[in-house]
Design brief:
It is built from 17 helices and 14 strands. It starts with 9 loop residues before the first helix and ends with a strand. By secondary structure, it is of the alpha+beta class. Helix 7 packs across helix 17. It has a domain of about 260 residues: Orthogonal Bundle (Cytochrome p450). The strands form 5 sheets. It has a 5-stranded mixed sheet with strand order 1-2-10-7-3. Helices cover about 50% and strands about 10% of the residues. It binds protoporphyrin IX containing FE. Protoporphyrin IX containing FE binds next to helix 13 and helix 17.
């Protein structure tokens, strides 16, 4: 069977699950001529490339499909640095994201969750992504960066606009995306200008990066703005999709929902199973800098790689019944947060935050009814998952 896979095609942006299954059946990387790119859909291929070939690839050409395959602009942040530079700039905030550091933040995060949740409860319905989880994670990213809380709605709306894709749109280059990106950049640039004038106003990661110096290099205003931009975006979209997805899939599996409602310790399993089953970071990309061989394919310098996590996490050679949502599954090896030097910095925060939001929500509403007709999924090549999950409940 001939497979025609284009990550920017309408079919792939709407639901890539069938094409990923077909590509996995081929058992090897799939070359996409028009993007000079190899699509890696098998778990072992994504894992091997991340762990063994990091020094044969560069992150400086970007990491999203739009950046690497279509030359969308690349923000200059540690996420788009290689090797030692990457380790040192990432290392400046690494301590904030370790398991003990995240644990120490749990009660603050819980208080933030309750503050957002409480006013929603009297209505008898809420949208788990829009009203709750996305708001909380935006506020939390803002807190980590030291941004004024009252501006959260502004940046949240701009991020949504930036990630919006019209039907058939390739990459993030539409006028709507560019205007939102420009406005968000402008907002953060103003903030950087304000704290440069008055450094006492800076807190969190912003204060750390503003004063940091590595090999005599200090971040100028533009680089600092890029970094804040990057943090704000990566910290606010993915985890809320998993929270919404967990509520959605539990509703579709009443036995598992009943078990979670009876035993809160299962919430973590449910959250992690949603990460696997409906991976929010559909794929990330790299540019190859040195030739190497992968599962019988010759990967050449200058070619691009698509690391398709959403497919790897459904690989039937690694997961039994991968297309079944099962909160009792033991995910011994998992690619939900990537692996290697660029492994997700926020993974412990994501798990802690996801669990707290789901705990507080289920404690407050108990059993709930999913308003399935009103649910909506993200459409696009990069992020994947639910962006509207309305439920109704009687407290
Ligand atoms: C369920 C939620 C999340 C998922 C599934 C997820 C997934 C990922 C994945 C797959 C990567 C790429 C890893 C690689 O290239 O090997 C990544 C990178 C990253 N994530 Fe997450 N992420 C989540 C939440 C968060 C949160 C809440 C933050 C907040 C700070 C965050 C910050 C980052 C950063 C900064 C990177 C780039 C790391 C680097 O290049 O050194 N993520 N994430």
């Amino acid at each position: 069977m001939t497979i025609d896979y284009d990550p920017f095609s309408h079919a792939a942006m709407q639901d890539p699950t069938p094409v990923y299954a077909a590509l996995r059946r081929q058992g090897k990387p799939y070359f996409i001529e028009q993007y000079n790119a190899w699509a890696l859909t098998k778990f072992e291929d994504v894992w091997t490339v991340s762990v063994n070939h990091e020094s044969d690839m560069t992150f400086t050409r970007g990491v999203t499909p739009g950046q690497v395959l279509l030359d969308d602009p690349v923000p200059h942040a540690f996420t788009t640095m290689d090797g030692r530079d990457h380790r040192r700039w990432r290392g400046l905030v690494r301590d904030t994201y370790t398991p003990p550091a995240v644990k120490a933040e749990t009660e603050r995060f819980r208080a933030l969750t309750c503050e957002v949740l409480e006013p929603l409860l009297s209505q008898g319905r809420l949208d788990v992504y829009q009203d709750l989880a996305n708001r909380i994670f935006c506020l939390n990213s803002g807190y980590n960066l030291g941004l004024p809380k009252e501006d959260a709605i502004t940046w949240r709306k701009l991020i949504d606009e930036m990630l919006h894709r019209d039907i058939g749109q390739k990459g993030g280059g539409s006028e709507r995306n560019q205007m939102a990106a420009g406005e968000l950049y402008g907002y953060l640039a103003d903030y950087v200008a304000r704290i440069r004038k008055n450094p006492d106003l800076a807190s969190g990661h912003t204060a750390t990066y503003m004063s940091a110096e590595i090999d005599g290099v200090k971040l100028d205003d533009e680089a600092l703005t890029h970094l804040l931009f990057n943090f704000l975006v990566v910290g606010s979209e993915t985890t809320p999709m998993v929270c919404g997805g967990t509520i959605y899939y539990l509703a579709k599996h009443p036995e598992q929902k009943k078990a979670v409602l009876a035993d809160r310790s299962l919430i973590k399993n449910a959250f992690l199973e949603t990460c696997r089953y409906d991976q929010p970071t559909n794929m990330l990309c790299r540019r190859v800098t040195k030739d190497f061989e992968l599962s019988g394919s010759q990967i050449r310098e200058g070619q691009n790689l698509l690391l398709i996590y959403a497919s790897a996490n459904r690989d039937e050679e690694v997961f039994e019944n991968p297309d079944v949502y099962d909160i009792y599954r033991e995910n011994k090896r998992n690619l939900s947060f990537g692996i290697g030097g660029h492994v997700c910095l926020g993974m412990h925060l994501a798990v802690m935050g996801g669990i707290v939001i789901l705990e507080e929500l289920l404690d407050a509403v108990g059993d709930y009814e999913l308003l399935e007709d009103e649910c909506e999924r993200a459409y696009g090549e990069h992020l994947s998952g639910f962006i509207k999950v309305p439920i109704q409940f009687q407290r």
